[in-house]
Specification:
Layout: H1 4-8, E1 15-22, H2 29-38, E2 46-52, E3 62-67, H3 70-73, H4 76-81, E4 86-92, E5 107-111, E6 114-124, H5 127-136, H6 146-158, H7 164-172, E7 177-184, E8 189-193, E9 202-206, E10 209-213, H8 216-221, E11 225-229, E12 235-239, E13 242-246, E14 256-257, H9 259-264, E15 270-271, E16 274-275, H10 276-291, E17 297-300, H11 304-316, E18 324-326, H12 339-349, E19 350-352, H13 354-357, E20 361-366, H14 373-384, E21 389-394, H15 416-419, H16 422-429, E22 433-436, H17 442-446, E23 451-452, H18 454-457
Parallel strand pairs: 14-23, 17-20, 20-21, 21-22
Antiparallel strand pairs: 1-4, 1-10, 2-3, 2-4, 5-6, 6-7, 7-8, 8-12, 9-10, 9-11, 12-13, 15-16, 18-19
Helix pairs in contact: 5-6, 6-7, 10-11
């Protein structure tokens, strides 16, 4: 989904995952619905829920998925009819497989030993090779996404192993890429995180109900408490007999996606021990130390640019102000294909508070510049509102290279910083000055957390 120019010129995470198991046998579809709503920022193209009951006859999986936002896909009647005490949910933004209904998740499959429903965040970079092997073995005939390839791989191992955990471990040993996967089997909820920790997965609890989710905010949104992050490479299994951890695939080398902290995650989430809001404020502080400029006011681009702007203001002593009003009710269908209509989309999505910027020198903070189109139009809006000068500060380094792990960084030819110098970008967007965060400043944001920075450095961990 491209929601006007503002989203057109942003990076997108592939999706958000949510899984839950009530050991008391309570219906959990409502909690999945609210958990997915809390993860809606991670994907707005499709949503899906699969639930089943661990009590009684097996094979009672209930599934609904479709294109649209969570509240568009599911009615109250849908949620009430999906009875079950174990289930998974998914919100999607496509980076592989295309934006089509058949690629919506969860993926649900029946096989000789039972059934499973699977949700996946990330990208399996060797999916094409695995698919060829599956077709050779007659396991799969046609798949449209790497998630289906993953599901077939698990099923292929499951018919040879004694437990779903063993099957997941055997399948994961073949995978290359970044992923967080939750599997709903008839009697177990199993989660796994890729060995590098590129994609996040959090473990929580609400009474006797256990939760796995892409972000801590999804756990707290349903009244749960966060227990911990799933370790990179760890397989965690939730059963009636207890919670079990298998760390056989864990490794020393890790590479957490830096963009979770810059942009993807919700401001109120905590990930791998890092508070997202604090990390973004620290990025703004680092920008102020690196490239302070004389100005009257510091403003941020909603939403993820606001915390960095606050940090810049605190460090520089330049007052922070809200200069943009964001219209949150444009809706998913506001998709305009032409340049003229996209320009209108920016004005529909964001409007300037004239009295905040009139006759002032402005520092505007955003999390990234991808193609440059949105920042150019925002600067034009600020100048039209009477700003004397507009200085741009970006809380990430210049994007130079694509991502292969489930983030839709475009090809280098579409990245303005890959094709132009900083001065050329500054001139193109119409700013009085332009500075980026340095890679060396990531330590200010997240301490010594090992990071994947391939989209800035061309150094890929996998």
């Amino acid at each position: 989904m491209i929601d006007g120019t503002v989203e057109f010129d942003k990076l997108h995470e592939e999706c958000g995952v949510f899984g839950i198991y009530s050991l008391d046998g309570e219906n959990i579809a409502g909690d999945i619905y609210y958990g997915l709503t809390a993860l809606q920022h991670r994907g707005q193209e499709s949503a899906g829920i699969a639930v089943s009951s661990t009590i009684g006859e097996m094979g009672n999986l209930k599934l609904k998925k479709d294109m649209g936002l969570v509240n568009e896909v599911f009615s109250d009647e849908d949620i009430q009819s999906m009875e079950g005490d174990i289930g998974v949910g998914h919100v999607r933004y496509s980076t592989t497989g295309g934006s089509r209904p058949e690629n919506a998740q969860p993926i649900a499959m029946n096989y000789i030993k039972g059934s499973l429903a699977l949700v996946h965040n990330g990208n399996i970079v060797n999916a094409a090779k695995l698919k060829e092997e599956q077709m050779f073995r007659g396991l799969a005939h046609y798949t449209t996404s790497d998630t289906e390839v993953l599901a077939y791989e698990i099923i292929g191992e499951r018919v040879k192993t004694g437990t779903i955990e063993e099957a997941i471990k055997a399948a994961a040993a073949k995978l290359k890429g970044g992923y967080a996967v939750i599997v709903n089997s008839p009697r177990k909820l199993v989660g796994i995180r890729d060995p590098f920790g590129i994609k996040p997965l959090i473990f929580g609890k609400k009474g006797s109900t256990y939760i796995l989710a892409s972000e801590s905010a999804a756990i707290t949104s349903v009244g749960g408490e966060v227990i911990r992050d799933i370790e990179p490479g760890e397989i965690i299994s939730i059963t009636r007999e207890g919670v079990f951890s298998d760390k056989a695939l864990c490794q020393e080398k890790r590479a957490h996606c830096i963009f979770e902290y810059i942009y993807f995650a919700r401001n109120d989430s905590v990930m791998d021990g890092i508070e997202i809001h604090e990390a973004r404020m620290n990025a703004g502080r680092a920008l102020a130390r690196k490239s302070r400029v004389e100005a009257d006011v510091v403003v941020g681009v909603p939403d993820s640019g606001l915390a960095a702007a606050e940090g810049y203001a605190l460090e520089s002593g330049v007052p922070f102000a809200l200069a943009f009003h964001k219209n949150s009710y444009i809706g998913r269908s506001f998709i305009k294909p032409t340049d003229k209509e996209r320009q209108t989309a920016v004005h529909m999505k964001l409007s300037v508070l004239n009295n905040v910027v009139r006759d002032k020198s402005i520092v505007i903070i955003d999390d990234s510049i991808v193609r440059g189109t949105t920042m150019k139009q925002l600067i034009e809006m600020l100048r039209s509102a009477g700003a004397k000068a507009v200085h741009v500060r970006i809380s990430s380094p210049p994007f130079l290279y694509p991502c292969y792990y489930g983030t839709d960084v475009p090809t280098s030819s579409q990245l303005i910083a890959s094709q132009h110098s900083t001065e050329e970008v500054r001139s193109n967007i119409g700013a009085d000055s332009l500075e980026y965060l340095g890679i060396e400043d990531f330590a200010t944001m997240v301490g010594n957390l090992p990071l994947c920075t391939a989209c800035f450095t061309n150094e890929y961990p996998v």
